[in-house]
Amino acid sequence: MTKSAATGGGSTRRLLLTYLSGQIDELRSREAGARIDSPDAVHRMRVASRRLRSSLATFRPLFRGSKAKRLRDELQWLGTVLGPVRDVEVMRAHLHETVADLVGGEDLAAVLAQLDRELAERHSGAQAEMNTAMDGPRYAALLAALEGFVTTPPWARQAPKVATRLTVPALVGRACERVDRAALAARAARTGLVAQVVSGDEGAPEAGGVELHEVRKAAKRARYAAEVASSSGPAARALAERMEELQAVLGRHQDSLMVRALIQDLADRVTKRQALALDLLIGAEQADDGSFLAAYDQALAAASTNDVRGWTRR
Questions:
Q1: Is residue 278 over pLDDT 70?
Q2: Closest by alpha carbon to 189, among 206, 203, 208, 204?
């Protein structure tokens, strides 16, 4: 991290505006592809919208008034428009990856075909709803508001002492602290689950599923915050990469949980033989839980070391 990036409100503002402008360009450039369902286009739009929303939240102390908050709310709405399309894409890919490693007969093939048909129908409906929303005035207004925001940013006036606490390293550090707090909550949830299992409670919930999802969201936010500073030095890039790895591990687990819920829903609507075939899919998903927890612990530790976080603590 260079000295100019670590000190001075002007440098912080330049880095942030460059990042926000790049994500707006990405959002616009992927729109045409998303409308016609080009591969990865909806995903790229969704990521750009998340980066924008997350950055406006992390760096909110730099802005006055409510413009940043209103933009975050509208970006959240855009996420609800793009999300259903992308979620179905992810589930279909994850499901086919799981089935590729299984040996099954006609019953497994039948339930897989039914799952795929249901997901295809869900995708078609979500795609149509997304296009309708993007044709409407709300989406056009959001794009105009984003452009106006970076053209004339509503910077807050800050006293010198306050400005020293609002540098990129300090604000990225705050985002990392959110990861730490979420991870502690997830650890407590896992400990509680172990106690329930030992006591014979068969109704114990998924191991810290909600809490682990919060870790994932916090890791995304820390990753995007570090990306703002990534042009300033290798330490920021390394932190962004470590948080991305943590996010990826948690993302694969979240995908698995979504597929399990889909399978469980279908299990109530098929024959007994087909339900047994679905048990194979559930078993295959659950078989990865142990390796997931090990990978999660490793990724969390790697994202917490002083060599990637030290620059945020100075």
A1: yes
A2: 208
